[in-house]
Amino acid sequence: MTAANSNGVLDEEIPLLTRKDFVSDQEVRWCPGCGDYSILAQMQKTLPGLKIPREEIVFVSGIGCSSRFPYYVNTYGFHTIHGRAPAIATGLKTARPELTVFVITGDGDGLSIGGNHLMHLLRRNVDVTVVLFNNRIYGLTKGQYSPTSPIGKVTKSAPMGTTENPLDPIKLALAAGATFVARSVDRDTKHLEATLSTAAQHKGAAFVEVFQNCNIYNDGAFASFADKDVRQDRMVYLENGKPLRYGSNLEHGIRLNGFQPEVVESPTNDNELLVHDTNREDIALPMILSGMNYPDFPVPLGVFRQVERDTYDGLVAEQVGVARDSAEADLEALIAGPETWNVL
Amino acid sequence: MTTEIESPLSEGVTTRDRVTIRFAGDSGDGMQLTGTQFTRTTAVYGNDLATLPDYPAEIRAPTGSLPGVSGFQLSFSSNDIHTPGDNPDALVAMNPAALKTNLRDLIPGGLLVVDDGEFNSTNLRKAGYENNPLEDGSLSSYRLLRIDITKNNADALDGLDLGAKERFRSRNFYALGLVLWLFSRPMDTVVRWATEKFGRNPVVLEANLRALRAGNAFGETSELVHERYEVPPADVEPGIYRHISGNEATALGFVTASHLAGLPLFYASYPITPASDVLHELASFKRFGVKTMQAEDEISAVCAAIGASYAGQMALTGTSGPGLALKSEGLNLAVMAELPLVILNVQRAGPSTGMPTKTEQADLLQAMYGRNGDSPVAIIAPSTPGDCFWMAIEAFRIALKYMVPVIILSDGYLANGSQPWSIPKLAEIPPVLWRQADHETVSHAYERDPDTLARAWAIPGQAGFEHRVGGLEKSYETGDINYEPGNHHKMTLTRAERVARIADDVPDIEVVGPQEGDLLLLGWGGTYGSITSAGERARAEGKSVASAHIRHLNPFPSNLGEVLSRYDKVMIPELNNGQLSVLIRSQFLVDAIPFNKIAGQPFKITEILGKIDEILGLAGPYEFEF
Lengths: 344, 626
Fold this sequence. Notes:
The complex is a heterodimer of chains A (344) and B (626). Chain A is α/β, with parallel strands linked by helices and 344 residues long. Chain A has a domain at 19-221 and 310-336: Thiamin diphosphate (ThDP)-binding fold, Pyr/PP domains (Rossmann fold, 3-Layer(aba) Sandwich), CATH 3.40.50. In chain A, 30% of the residues lie in helices and 18% in strands. Chain A has helices at 36-50, 85-95, 107-113, 115-124, 169-175, 189-201, 223-226, 228-234, 284-290, 312-326, 331-336; strands at 57-61, 76-79, 100-106, 129-134, 180-185, 206-211, 235-238, 245-246, 252-257, 260-264, 299-306, 340-343. In chain A, a hairpin with a 5-residue loop joins strand 8 (245-246) and strand 9. Chain B has 626 residues and is an alpha/beta fold. Chain B has three domains: 14-230, Pyruvate-ferredoxin Oxidoreductase, domain 3 (3-Layer(aba) Sandwich), CATH 3.40.920.10; 242-428, Rossmann fold; 511-615, Rossmann fold (3-Layer(aba) Sandwich). In chain B, 35% of the residues lie in helices and 20% in strands. Chain B has a seven-stranded mixed beta sheet with strand order 12-11-13-14-16-15-22, sandwiched between helices. Chain B has a six-stranded mixed beta sheet with strand order 4-5-3-6-7-8, with helices on both faces. In chain B, helix 14 links the parallel strand 15 and strand 16 (405-411). Chain B is globular.
């Protein structure tokens, strides 16, 4: 079996890797029952399919429960500082565009302390995959509200309920110009694995929000719509080019009335339904979809947007190439500068 | 191009061995350009020189106002000089505000050139003059040269397709032409530069060249100008020279270090005065494989650099004091992950935003201690604009060999100041060495070199070295997370010892002057010129005064303690409120005497001389005259 690495050069024979090859020797220290286990498992299942040697993969994380992730994946890994993983990943990927880089972050790490860096990574379209574990709570600091906690949420730091409006990660990513925006959920392992795989193969900044249950500080945050027995009726799977249908027999649908989505109970045919299109340049459609929340609507899962654009790391490398082709790199001449004089 | 220097003396001029000129005008008057071009001409002419640009933080403060005055001072000489001069011998004032803010520095009897045309009632009022100082006799102690530069310049541009505003903009070339004539300098260097700079805009080029020549011709033909001066070339070490500013030298040093190490350079920075020019320079060096990133903030800049370091490249970030504060956390990650990283801090006056365009050296303790935990980093400081080149290379030498962050403390004075610089031969600079992990010598990424205590640099792409690093404490043995008490104790001592061992590579500090005696002047960074000159003058007056300058601040040179012990007293002049003093006192138990100036300006030689006399008991307590 041979595989091309990310810079397109055929490597010599590399053995076909399996999930086990991506399990590190470190003891996993998340709470039993945490949704993080599922995300780790799906990632470890996804990685062999990328056909990239372990040593060319880097996981970069910030601080928080989710950010322990790199310790458990047997690739290169960098557990950095709070909120800064996107900045470190940008430097890493720009310096070495041939590497495959993942950023693992959470709703506090990525949207609160590191919101600025996340936004800029997405707008620059750095070719990395960002996985944001959204549990709508601070776990590692033991239960304060996060920027995605719903207003009124009672937490240790908000005994009478939060007075802050939450941020929608999908909207933020879309507004920042992310070229790939998707959402999945820890409990739907099949969908999660497929989503991570698609995201990892996207050329450009890929952003994946994963609804992740914190069974200690925010248990059941997504249960009302993401639990197995209700999921079919309360979530809608977005598929490119297909009408939005949901329900255990796909009996319901979504249509657009102007800018307003509407639930259609048992539509007679697909013609009246909204057809998903991930490839649109404008973000109007995914923005509308991101506004669909339970209980008024089924919650969308899947790819909201996927478009092609030059990557930051690619453009930086290209400029270096152009500069090298167009002028001689004469360091002695550079040091001497435009004007010299000779003292005899 | 290279110019051969020949004997410059011509007839009818007064020969001086040193002249200090200051150009002052509104910040829109182009005084920095005038000063820089006069400097280039003077450098090519063969004088030793030093410059001090002094400009406001505002890009365009209200026209004609006192805060809007921009100045550029240079001193040039037939001898080896170290400073841009204490007080100018000649002042060019383009408007009343420039006169008002700069006149007090002009020496008695100094030459004062003013643009007569700008001394109108509006400008006089803006500058706070009740009477016209050109008329009221208040300037009688100077040699006043009143020239209507505005009108003469406009006349010279007659017939060009330019509005009044555009014409007005060429006044600085008129002034430059005049001053070139006054100091017997040729115009060709300026003409060549202007032709390149304005070549795409023929009308502007024509205007500037006409203005330059008109100013020069005015000097030659006008009965007003009775005196001309000449400062013959300096007798300096033979070699090929160029004119260089500190920031230029810094950028060249970094790209040279990259060449010497054979590793690509990655520079991430957020624009900040006075460090931005390094970003501009490096961004134009792409053909040397340099990648630059204008980060979204200071934190991102240091973090992106850390990412590049983890990736195995030469990682660099640059900033000024407020930015260093923001980078503290990132810097600490590099300490903990044991990654090579260079942080350039072009210091400016603080605290907080402080005075962005004014110089200071008040970030030493921030560099030394401004992080959580026991977090030692290497700290070095260039002493002259040209030395910035060498210290940029030195920073990477240390960072790569010891796998540590290195902070370079440059400052606004060095960054914007300039000097003639002997161009080094690339082939004669030793290579910058680094050690990548390889399976023959190390078994994992945290195995240490027994001599340097540096861990192996294992980088992504190397099979078999897949490992995880981070900000959590790690096991000394394996690099895995470890919270055991004995391990943290050992790791903290190891991090300290690794930095301490850098001293093995640090050259001994050299003393200028007597090897033992009454007083040692001890300095660091951009004060080298002032301190060295003050020592020279004190010795010329028969005093037992030596000077020594520290380029490696952490760790110090190994012989520093012994050197300090050879003098009865140690005086530490610093442009801060006593930071090196704290380090010297705590490390060597020496009763060093601080001499602190915190004015946003470099030391004048006379200020240091005043303090020397106080310490030697030759004069009373020294007071600054601001």
